[in-house]
Amino acid sequence: MLQEKIGLPAVPGEAGLVVLPRRGKPPLRFRAALLCRHHCAGGSGPAMEIALWRRPGAGYALSLTRVDGGAVVADALQAADPTVLAEWLEQEALPAPATRRRKGRSPLAPGDLLPKLLDRQREAELLREFRALVGEALADWESAVPLAPAPATGKAP
Predict the structure, then answer these.
(1) 68: enclosing H helix or E strand
(2) Which residues neighbour 85 within 8 Å (Cβ) at sequence distance 6 or greater?
(3) pTM for the predicted model, two decimal places
(4) SS3 at position 54
(5) How far apart, in Å, are the Cα atoms of 99 and each of 80, 92, 95, 123?
(6) Worst-scoring range by mean pLDDT, 36-50, 111-125, 126-140?
(7) Would the CA dihedral through 55, 58, 60, 64 be positive or negative?
(8) How far apart are CA 85 and CA 49, in angstroms?
(9) Start-to-end C-alpha separation, the chain
(10) Domain locations along the chain
């Protein structure tokens, strides 16, 4: 996994210097303790991982490695409130918007249909595995760091 390759703390409770890559931004660099880490071997593809870090006096950080569009993508986010991280993670688990067929576009050639269907099946399986990983991580976080309930709207039920 990524932690072992670059020497990050790999055991919950272990603290040290953390460097987390981010999509389209400079890496996050900070000292933190690993609270929990979840990964799956990626039965239908590369391994995926989600980790929650506690930053001394500065909140939390989340690291994420997953397959997106056939490529392995690493991303990270930091926030004072772990609920923000949970919401971001839930958004990452949503499927990509479906693309609409454009007018005038020719249908697939008969020989292209099976490879296209197999690609979609692999993407669906990876998304299913990632969603299961997100569910495990969020359930574990509830015990490690109680997530705040949604704010009240002030309206009576």
Answers:
(1) strand 59-68
(2) 52, 60, 61, 62, 77, 79
(3) 0.70
(4) strand
(5) 36, 18, 12, 14
(6) 36-50
(7) negative
(8) 15
(9) 47
(10) 2-95+111-144
Closest CA to 9 of 31, 41, 29, 26: 31
Amino acid sitting at position 117: L
More confidently predicted of 89 and 108: 89
Supply the angle between the helices 110-144 and 82-92 in degrees, to the nearest 10. 160
Please give the torsion angle defined by the CA atoms of residues 64, 98, 44 and 73, in that order, rounded to the nearest 10 degrees.
Answer: -30
- Distance (Å, whole) CA 95 – CA 73: 15
The tokens of 72 are what?
């392995």
pLDDT of residue 1: 42
**Which letter does DSSP use for residue 99 in this model?**
P
